[in-house]
Write a structure and sequence with these properties.
The two termini are 23 Å apart. The protein contains 10 helices and 7 strands. Strands 2-4-5-7-6 form a 5-stranded mixed sheet, covered by helices on one side. The chain has a two-stranded antiparallel sheet with strand order 1-3. It has helices at 2-29, 36-66, 71-93, 100-111, 113-184, 186-204, 214-229, 257-266, 297-303, 307-319, and strands at residues 212-213, 236-241, 250-251, 274-283, 286-294, 324-331, 334-342. By secondary structure, it is α+β, with helices and mostly antiparallel strands.
């Protein structure tokens, strides 16, 4: 409601206030009794002329000719308008002076007809220029608003695309894991399918929102870890540390998945000791998320597709611009991925 009021009424009220100030300025500034004829001649008639010239341009001429690149018509109409009001002022002023011819003759003799006309024309020309400036500013604001809506629409579309891209990627990797269990461990495969069905509910419903609770995101991640543990070798050492959430923290969905998925995909070797350490902490308004895993360069170079991590980088840049820190690196056969997010909007 407040936005509607601002949009529909604020601008007209500003116009009314400014023109009201112009018309009543003599009564505000002069303390003694005001000569109404003097106010009409020196203030109201010129101000009325400026008002009409301004709004004829504001509501018609600028849109019809200036913005349509018909500058000659715009100039011709305004020249006609200026001459018409110049005649109007000279003729109308005489109605408020009983001795107008003598006064006008004395004025013209003292300052000249040209100077008198220029003094009336200059404010009119400046009013036309001010009107064009106001309309250009309004047009620029409208274009900026349209551009902002287009950018927001494009941003939303790109985020949805990235979010939907990660779902089939996740499903493909998970189904590969389940397939490997069908012959060797049918019971585990059945359990995996049941776990996958619960995770798909999250993917199909909750993850379509722009933000989800951190609690749900952690629950999804724990289910994924349990699913991955069904097929890993016994020599994997897995450590997880997730906090108890006591506040309503909201984050973008599926941000925590890529690190863990990458760790299970590239940090486990069938014959060598492997480890994965997952740690998530909350400090003030920030989430600190770290995943460390053993690294096997030959395996990584042969199978790394990088879809999940590439997707994560793009989503972070769109959703948390200047509000996140991302680090990935390998040292001494240990791959470390760190993410810090400021979750306050």
């Amino acid at each position: 409601m407040q936005r509607i009021l601002n949009k529909n009424y604020i601008t007209p009220l500003i116009h009314i206030a400014l023109w009201g100030l112009v018309f009543f300025w003599p009564f505000i500034m002069v303390q003694e009794k005001v000569n109404i004829n003097r106010v009409i001649v020196r203030n109201w008639l010129p101000s009325f002329s400026l008002l009409v010239i301004f709004y004829v341009n504001y509501w018609w001429l600028v849109d019809a000719f200036f913005f349509e690149k018909k500058k000659r018509w715009f100039l011709a109409c305004n020249v006609f308008l200026l001459l018409a009001f110049l005649v109007f002022l000279e003729q109308t002023i005489s109605l408020f002076h009983n001795d107008f011819p003598e006064k006008v003759a004395m004025f013209k003799k003292k300052r000249g007809i040209m100077i008198s006309s220029i003094q009336m024309l200059v404010p009119m020309i400046l009013t036309i220029g001010m009107c064009v400036g106001v309309k250009l500013s309004d047009q620029w604001k409208k274009k900026e608003l349209i551009l902002e809506k287009i950018k927001k629409s494009q941003l939303d579309s790109e985020i949805k695309y990235l979010r939907h891209q990660i779902q089939p990627h996740f499903l493909f990797n998970t189904l590969n894991n389940i397939y490997s269990l069908v012959d060797s461990a049918p019971g585990m495969a059945k359990t995996s399918i049941h776990s996958l069905s619960k995770m798909m509910r999250y993917l199909l419903h909750d993850s379509n929102d722009n933000r989800v609770s951190l609690t749900k995101e952690i629950e999804f991640l724990e289910r994924f870890i349990d699913l991955m543990k069904l097929r890993v070798a016994n020599h994997l050492t897995l450590e997880t540390n997730f906090p108890i959430i006591n506040q309503p923290i909201q984050i973008a969905p599926l941000l925590l998945l890529s690190f863990v998925e990458n760790a299970f995909k590239h940090g486990i070797n069938a014959t060598q000791p492997s480890f994965i350490k997952i740690n998530l902490t909350i400090e003030e308004n920030k989430i600190h998320y770290t995943v460390e895993n053993s690294s096997f360069p030959e395996k990584n170079s042969a199978t790394d597709s990088g879809v999940g991590l590439s997707n994560l980088r793009k989503r972070l840049s769109l959703l948390y611009t200047d509000k996140y820190e991302l680090f990935e690196g390998e040292k001494n056969n240990v791959y470390t991925a760190k993410l810090t997010i400021n979750f306050k909007e």
